[in-house]
Amino acid sequence: MSRRSTGSLYESRGAWLLALTIAAKRVHLRLRTCRNRTEAELRQHVVVSLAERLRATGHDGSVGPICRQAAEADDDLLPSIV
User: Around Cβ 44, how many Cβ atoms within 10 Å?
Assistant: First the structure.
């Protein structure tokens, strides 16, 4: 059984980013709407949960594009992506 993916948050040049392993590659997703660590942690939880659900249902090919959309979406658009 593989280890649960949690991703890691970091701030660079005033922007929050989420590093996450997708399809055996480490990708860095910009959390465009997050202004502080609390907002970034909440979005991290949403994106990681979404990735896990997609993987569990056999939609591995959709993980990258959908997680990227979820990371960049504003709060009005996020529910429709999830």
Answer: 23
pTM over the 0.85 mark: yes
Query: In whole angstroms, what is the distance from residue 8 CA to residue 6 CA?
Result: 7
Any alpha helices (H) in 25-62, and if so which ranges? 37-56
pLDDT of residue 9 exceeding 50: yes
**E-strand spans in the chain?**
8-12, 15-22, 25-30
What b/e readout covers 57-78, taking b as 16+ CB neighbours within 10 angstroms?
eeeeeebbebbbbbbbbeeeeb
Spacing of C-alpha 34 from chain mean position: 12
